[in-house]
Amino acid sequence: MNIYFYATFSNQDEFLASVKKKFKSHKIFTKNDNIKLDIIDVALVWKLPNKILKKLTNLKIIFSLGAGVDHILNLPSYQKIPIIRIKDPNMRSRMFNHVLSQILNYQLKLNDYRLAQNKQKWLDEKYTLLNKDLTIGVLGLGYIGSFVAKKLQSLDYKVIGYKNSRNKSKMLFPVYYKNSISTFLRSSDIIVSILPATPNTKNIINTSFLNQLKKNCLLINIGRGSSLNEDDLIKHLKKNKNFFASLDVFIKEPLLKKHQFWKNPNVTVTPHIAAVTDVDSSIDYIFTKFEYFRKKRKIKSDVFINRGY
Ligand code: GLV
Question: Which residue stretches of the chain are H helix?
Fold first, then answer.
């Protein structure tokens, strides 16, 4: 089969080399090969430009080289070709580690000690809450969100979840749906948003959402920047000096140099690193799905195209 690889990762050369090794009996092409794109059967992509997709007229399957698929669904030339996204246990473990680090940083007030260290100041000890005293609201309970929620619960945090549609499998913690979002927001000490970018999630974290949270809440966004109305958060932070945010994703990435988030002492900015795609395990995952497709000649998309995830 003819395979096209396109990525915008800093380690894309290493990625490509591993793809070539794993798919050794197939031809792998990239934008550097001068070929007619209609010979391509399968594409492995991260942030593929629309002008390339438009020419992949015989494409049978698209693999997203990440967990998200918004970078494909947003392309005007995308037409219902099955999409397989990476569901990698390593990726969700990394996501969990990131979330835990941000929770502990807030819970143990570690930032205060760091700031005091900068001034060589020995702070008095501060009272900190135990895990069982904190309610973590996980917004979005898909492959990654449900894992993060379960792991947090195993560490004695009180976990609640929110999702758009009812789950087939039963969760071991309270889950709120649709109109019960207010109860979910009011009960949470920390919100972890792991929402995908869809028309329904756009700007979901806005002034009305933020006003329902506790005044000293921590908001962690590791889903997509489009879920958060950044201007609303900036206004909210001005009014609520004990409100904190840890943001890994932004409307525009890289975050603009002049963006107010950089210098806000209550905001932690990380550059979309909460869960980088793991080269070996993701290629193994893709290869298994690819082999299934090659043998059966068909594959079910694991993305609900009309829902957007
Ligand atoms: C990263 O944001 C991903 O979707 O994998």
Answer: 12-22, 50-53, 70-73, 89-107, 110-118, 143-154, 181-187, 207-211, 230-239, 279-296
Fold of 2-88+278-296: Rossmann fold (3.40.50)
Residues lining ligand 1, Cβ inside 6 A: 66-68, 277
Cα 253 to ligand 1 centre (Å):
13
> In the chain, where are the structural domains located?
2-88+278-296, 89-269
Concerning whether 224 is annotated as a catalytic residue, the answer is: yes
**Could you read off the pLDDT of 58-69 as tens digits, one per residue?**
999 999 999 999
Rg (CA), the chain: 21
89-269 has the same fold as 2-88+278-296: yes
Q: Write the pLDDT tens digit of every residue in 80-118.
A: 899 999 999 999 999 999 999 999 999 999 999 999 999
Instruction: Select which of 94, 224, 259, 307 is catalytic.
Output: 224
Identify the DSSP state of 228: B
127 Cα to the center of ligand 1, angstroms: 36
- Give the pLDDT of residue 93: 97
Does 89-269 carry CATH code 3.40.190.10? no
Catalytically annotated residue among 85, 272, 294, 307? 272
Per the annotation, the verdict on 307 as an active-site residue is no
